[in-house]
Amino acid sequence: MERLKDFNQFTWIQEETERVDFKKWKGCYISNLIPHRYEHYCKIMHPIYRDLNIEDETLLWSQSDPNDSTPFDFGERLTLKDLAQKYNLQYTKEIRTSTIYHLLGGYPRYLLLPDEEYGQRNP
C-alpha cells in the first residue's frame, strides 16, 4: 500500500456531496456522504431491541432515572419496519430512529436503540 501525499484523488467526492454545516446542525444525510453519481445505496441498520425489564411502553428515556442501575434485558429484536407498523408510520427509505423520537416527543424507554444522530436525544 502506498501512502498518499495529498488527497487530490478524492476531490470528486467532496465536489459531489453536500457539505455538512456543523454550526447549524440539522443532521447528517445520505447526500452528505454519498456522491450524487450513485443512484443506489444500501442502508445497514444497527439492531433495535426491546428491554424486557420495561413494561410501560409509554415511558420515555427522558422520564427515567439516569442513576437507575437496572441492567438491560435484551429481548426481541425489532426493525424500523416493525416500529413503523406499531406507531402507524409510513415505512420509507427516509425513516430513522429519530422519526420515532419526533412522533412521541422522545425515545421510548422500552427500546434499546442505536444513537443515529448526535444531539437528537437533547434537542
From TrEMBL:
Source species, domain of life: Bacteria
UniProt protein name: Uncharacterized protein
Organism ancestry: Bacteria, Bacillati, Bacillota, Bacilli, Bacillales
